[in-house]
Amino acid sequence: MEERGPEATPERIVQRGLYYEELKEGAVYEHRPGRTVTEADNTFFSTLTMNPQSLHLDAHFSASTEFGRPLVNSLFTLSTLVGLSVAQLTQATTVANLGFGEIAFPRPVFHGDTLYAETTVLEKRLSSSRPGNGVVKFEHRALNQDGELVARAQRSALMLCKPEGER
Questions:
Q1: Helical H runs in the chain?
Q2: 8 A C-beta contact, residue 89 and residue 97
C-alpha cells in the first residue's frame, strides 16, 4: 500500500441541503429512504406531546371505529414528512421556518405503513429585509407504500444564499 504524505490530505465533502440559488422552482425532489411507522412511534409521539386521543392509543376503542384499528397521530405524519426532506433540501442551509400554509391529511396512516416524501419548490424570492437570504415556499407530500397521498403541507422557509466565495 502506498503511503500518503501530509500533502495528500483527502478532499472532505460535508453533507448539506441546497442553498437558495440551488433550489429550482417547479422541480420535484424525491426524498429517500422512506420511513416505516411503528406502533411504538405512534404511542411515544402521542404521549410525548400530551395527546391521549383514544384513536391513537386504544386498540380496543379504535376497533369500534370506521377505521377498525388505531390511527397514526397526524402531527407525527406531518413531522415525519418535513423531516424526510431535511437532508436533501435544508440541512445546514435553512435559517428558520417562517410558517405553514395549507395542511391536509387525505388518507389515514396506520402502524406498518411506510411513508415516502417528495417536495416541490412552489416559488422563491430574495429576502427584502435580510441580505444573503431568500424565502422559499415548499409543498411537501407524503405517500404511503401504495403511492396514495396521505399528507400535504405548504411551508415557507428562510434559506441561506450561497456564501460569497461559492457564487
A1: 39-48, 54-57, 59-63, 74-89
A2: no
